[in-house]
Amino acid sequence: MLSQYLFFFLSFVAIVSALMVLLSKKPIHSVLYLTLTFFTLAGHYILLNAQFLAVVHIIVYAGAIMVLFLFTVMLLNLNIEGEFQKSTIMKFIAAIGGGMIFLVLIGTLKSFDVATVGNPELTQIGLVKNLGKTLYSDYLLPFELSSILFLSAMVGAVMLGKKDKQ
Amino acid sequence: MIIVLLLVLPLLASLILFTGKLGKHSREFALIVSLLEFGVALVAGYAFTFANHKILNLSLNLKQLLDIDIIINIDAVSLLMIMLTTLLVPVIIASNNNRKVRNHNFFGLILLMQMALIGVFTASEMILFYIFWELAMIPIFLITAIWGGQNRLKISVKFLIYTVVGSFAMLIAILYLYTLTPAPHSFSFDAFYHLKLPYSVQVPVFLAFFLAFAIKIPLFPFHSWQAETYNVSPVQGSMLLAGIMLKMGLYGIIRFILPICPDVVAGGSLIFLPLILFGVIYGAIIAIRQPKLKKMIAFVSLSHVGIIALGLLSNNHYGIEGAILQMFSHGVNVVGFFLCYQIIVIRTGTDIISDLGGIASAAPKFATLFLVVVLANVALPLTNSFVGEFLILLGLFQSNIYIAVIAGLTIILGAVYMLRMFQQVMYGPQTAVTTNFRDLTVREMLLFVPIIISIFLVGVYPSFVLQMLQTAVK
Amino acid sequence: MELISILLLVFPFLGFLIIGLLQKHMNRNVSGILGSAVICINLVLSAILFWHVSSSNQTVQTQLFDWVKFADISIPFAITVDRLSALMLMIINGVGLLIHIYSIGYMKEDEGVNRFFAYLNLFVFFMLTLVLSSNYLMLFIGWEGVGLCSYLLIGFWYKDHANNDAAKKAFIMNRIGDLGFLLGIFMLYSTFHSLNISEVLAKASVMPSGDMTLFFITLCLFIGATGKSAQIPLFTWLPDAMAGPTPVSALIHAATMVTAGIYLIARSSVLFVLSPVTMNIILVVGAATALIGGLVAIFQNDIKKILAYSTVSQLGFLFMALGLGSFSGAMFHLTTHAFFKALLFLAAGSVIHALSGEQDIRNMGGLRKKIPFTFALFIIGTIAISGIPPFAGFFSKEVILTAAFEHGLGMGIIATVISLMTTIYMFRLLFVVFFKPESKALKANHHVHESPKVMTYPMAVLAILSMIAGFVQLPKLFSETQGFDTFLLPVFAKATGLAAVSEHGLDVQTEWMIFLVPLLVIAALIVVSYKRFVNAKELTEASGFSKVLANKFYFDEIYDFCIVKPLGFISDIFREFVDQTIINGIVNGVGRGTLFVGKRLRRLQTGNVGFYLVIMVFSIIAILFFNIIL
Amino acid sequence: MGTTIAQIQTIPLQYYILFCSALFSIGVIGVLAKRNALVIFMSVELMLNSANLLLTAFSAYRNDPAGQIFVFFIMVVAAAEVAIGLALLVVVYRSTKTIDINALNRLKW
Q: Which of B454, B462, B472 is nearest to B391 (CA)?
């Protein structure tokens, strides 16, 4: 039962803070609310016994990505308050779109059957040891490729960030 | 390892040519390489007939990384096609004496094309086949688009798009078949051959393959790129197209349609055979009044390859074997025809049939050689096309009498258009453009040597080819 | 013997190769001598073979190599010499030799003389292939090969498009027949799984008479024969083929090639005998051709055309004989016809030669005195072909007439009429050319000259043969032994054995009637035509029905209107309309449509990211929605 | 194993589906309604994360590590994407002095 309460609590916080991401006027507040959302999500991961993911999630998202966002906002002085608002009709369309996609997603996913197909011997799949085994045996090539992706992303970011010589 | 040599030699040579370091000697270099290649092909033929067959296939397993096996293999049909390719490419290279086109890139592209063609004829794995199949398009497209005549860009792009549409259909069929192979899935031909598809699956697969090959061959009504492309392409390009590249489509029919969709071929013959048949007659009838020589060759070719396709789809082993033999003969004949065409056009500057005439009295040697080529195209006995055409018609006759009878009409129509053309071009009084027609030089005569030899060799003693093919047909 | 039979093919081919390849460098006299020498050797070889098969009653079988061989099909290059082929060998090489020698003189002035002899040798090669082959496909090689040579030789003077047209026409019409032949071969193969002639005949001989398969096979073979042997409806090429040099007309278009059809049917006699319907068709077609050829011949004015139509008529007569089941009779007449028709052609050539190329008989006349030797030979030929005893034509025609009367009175009368027409046109020709007062044009012509000896001597030999060849087989009235029949008996024994009709011989009176009545009519006809043609001032322009005849029943025009024109029309329609407008239009239309749609759809790219996002989200919604409801 | 799965399954999978869909929809609304490129970017991250969570949930319920591996890769891609995306944003801001997406409409037909 504890986990259920925990679930409801985390979900509630996550949704509220996610809404606040949209509703707050200043970008910097959005960033902070988003960080809060990510922390709640990390809690969800732990609830799901995906400890490794939870850790990685915090490191990558809260640690790296959100810091990047913050840096951008602050360094470029982008923290400008709602100077560009969309028209109400656009907001209306957005609300309808969001609602519809919510319904459709529920409709699509609700019928999913979740019979256990994985290895029944395997317990605690969320641990580093088990995940690492899978990652380095079955998914070796994608793993290596993703490192290349990272490298190129790094190079690309540096290239883009350089000031033009003019 | 011969097989690797066959593929690597022209590739390397073409790369060397692309660097442009060879300058004026490009043609000589390309010619030497292509002759060497012919020599290698002969060795492969010797190995196939007498020695160890094992040197003729190569299998590399790259499953760890890409789930693709590289399998290359030579059987009788491949060998015949490789022979055709390696025999004709030197002729094509040597026949080029147009200064504008004498360019290292041009020869590089021809050799690259040769490599791709040999790849198509040897690949025993679908993805590999498909890569070579598409690779072969690139050089011919560039040759047409760069060195072609009027409107070259428009026409070559049309040609490219048209054939790619067909290839795409084939790709879908290949991928679909791949999913049907038993796990672990495989792209190898063997795996595809062992599929025993139900009829309802065979039909769409057949249609997809047939579309790809019908465009490539081309068969009526997918031929509208052909005459235009021949017309605009430099002669060497036309030779490559008509002599070898069209055979890719026919080869595809042998490799895929016959083993994978046997029931459609057996059962549905009344649906597509009449279509092809109509194309055969259609091409022949158009050729009768075609005013331009090069376009006429295109329609003649349309008619001839239609007959070959009929033979392949006749569902009869005589027909199939005759058709394979005829693929070889047609390549030789049509290249011979284009040689004659080139000589006429270079000497007179025109290929309008009615402007020509009286060449025979000015150039008797040329007249004789041209006559031999024409007669080979008419399928006179003791020339190469006769045996093939005889077997095709025999096969058709045994599977469907009516189609055989109508297809037989091409014997008559063939005589009509060929003799009309020959008479107008070679006989009669000389015209303004033909008065100073020079007879063949020794170099030009040499070009005809392989053509003439193969015309009579296959015409008089086809058994050696036929017996070699016999096992493959089964 | 096997070696000899191979050499028979080797020599003419070598001759062709040597003369053909060395054309440029060869002295113009050498080629003729070389060509003739080759045929002379061949004649000796054939004589040996002939003697061998006629004395030993064996056939010579030679296998060269496998031509088409794989799986269950095996068609070798193989030679069979039996009495029928031996007879043909003698005719081809004998007449061929004489014509070769004649050509040395006739073609002396021509610049392409070397080419001419090369072609002629090639022709002999293919003709020998035809008669020596032991299977139908190899026979077909020869069959097409002689067609090729015929094409080359008709169009020998290729600078004039009229000749080329004639050559083309000959080749194409032959091809139509060839298609029939080819289909026949397919059926033979499908039925008997062999193309070996003797095997096929053996297998066929156990089949019931009137079998449908056999009917179609024989019909197809007969269609092939109509092309090569110029029968209705494919006969119109033969008169046009006279555009070639005269020796060619004599050799190819009178003596040898055009008889290939008869040879084919005689060769396959068993098949034909078992298919009475085809026999009747042959009979009717032969008779019709003979009648039309004869009628048209009467109204022609070109010396060679007359002979050509005469050939058509005679070939029709031969087919009648085949249709009547008288195979050896047909072969007999074929042999004698080869002699006297070759003679007539060569003599006509001699006339033309003397007049430096003039062929219109209206411009001739009175040549009797100027070229007496040719005249004498021509007379011999005319008598022989008209069937006046004791020359060869009489005896061979007699056999056929007898067969016709045995078949029925009506057929007998038709055959007689046909043979009598020969008299009319031949004597018309003879009288107009040699007896009529000289025409004005001829008077102006100064150097009319007798042909050189190299031309006259071969003709003389042919003349002698035309006179004596008939004595090989005297009519039954005079002789018990039927020499020719006996000679060919081994070949046709099976066929005649299978022929169901019991041969009830004619009674003696009828035979005498057949023998005498025509003779009387011939005599009368000669007198009438003498009056009519020698004394008439000028040949009047034809009118009415005779105009139809003079224009050859408008066959050419009908073909032109029914086949050639529509084909050209369809070709233009296909090329201009179907190909360019419809098919290419569709293909280009697809491209143009794509461009058009692209031009319109481009407007959707507004550049507004928000708009894109809305579209994207709603598309995803739509996809998922359809995913649910489907 | 039974215990862990049983423990997890005290929360029905449907809850996760609902929750993730809601999160995702919020992301969608943010993408549609906002004009600030930075916030749009954040909304995208939100959507990615909702998908991640759902994948993990499925993975846990099915006891199949592949799902979590997948999440791991998505994170990798997301990190790369953020790096590039923000760099682009900076470049855009430098040249146009705004991050309003409506100002970026030069790229059209």
A: B462
- All partners of chain A with 3 or more CB pairs under 8 angstroms: C, D
Could you tell me if C625 lies within 8 Å of chain A, comparing CB atoms?
Answer: yes
Taking CA atoms, C574 is separated from B287, B293, B310, C570, in Å, by 10, 17, 21, 6
Q: Is the ipTM of this complex over 0.85?
A: no
Angle, to 10 degrees, between the axis of helix C508-529 and the axis of helix C409-430?
A: 30
Residues of chain C positioned with their CB less than 8 A from the CB of D107: 605, 607
C614 touches chain A (CB under 8 A): yes
Domain boundaries, chain B: 268-474
Q: For residue C70, what is the nearest residue in chain B, using CA coordinates?
A: B467
The CATH class that applies to domain D2-98 reads mainly alpha
pLDDT, tens digit, 9 for 90 and up, residues C539-588: 555 566 777 777 777 788 888 888 888 888 888 888 888 888 888 888 88
Domains and CATH numbers, chain A: 1-104 (1.20.120.1200), 118-166 (no CATH)
| CA distances from residue C147 to C112, C231, C237 in whole angstroms, order as listed | 20, 15, 12
Q: What is the pLDDT of residues D43-98, one digit of tens each?
A: 999 999 999 999 998 888 888 888 889 999 999 899 899 989 988 888 888 888 88
Q: Which residues of C touch D102 (CB under 8 A)?
A: 608-610
Q: Is the dihedral of CA C101, C107, C113, C119 positive or negative?
A: negative
A107 to C614: CB separation less than 8 angstroms, yes or no: no
Minimum-distance CB partner of A101 among C620, C627, C628: C620
CA distance B318 to C72: 10
**Cα C91 to Cα B170: distance, rounded to the nearest angstrom:** 61
- Chain A nearest-CA distance from C619, in A, is 10
- Check C570 against B419: CB less than 8 A apart: no
CA-CA distance, D66 to B334, in Å (whole number)?
A: 59
Please, what are the averages of pLDDT over each run of 10 residues along chain B (474 residues)? 83 87 81 90 81 60 60 82 91 78 80 92 87 91 87 88 90 89 79 83 89 89 87 89 90 88 79 87 90 90 91 86 91 92 87 86 88 90 89 89 89 90 88 83 88 90 79 60
Mean pLDDT, consecutive 10-residue stretches, chain A (166 aa), reads 85 92 86 92 89 90 87 77 67 88 85 62 72 86 90 90 68
Q: Judged by CB atoms within 8 Å, which residues 26-85 of D form the interface with A?
A: 26-30, 32-36, 38-39, 41-43, 45-46, 49, 52-54, 56-66, 68-69, 71-73, 75-84
Distance of CA A114 to the CA centre of its chain: 24
Amino acid at D31: V
Contacts of C628 in chain D (CB under 8 A): none
Q: If you write DSSP's letter for every residue of B461-474 in order, what string do you get?
A: -THHHHHHHHHHH-
- Cβ distance A22 to D34 less than 8 Å, yes or no, reads yes
The confidence score (pLDDT) of residue D1 equals 44
Radius of gyration of chain A (CA): 20
Chains with ≥3 CB–CB distances under 8 Å to D: A, C
**Which of C440, C457, C426, C434 is CA-nearest to residue C369?**
C434
Q: Is the CB of D31 inside 8 Å of chain C's CB atoms?
A: yes
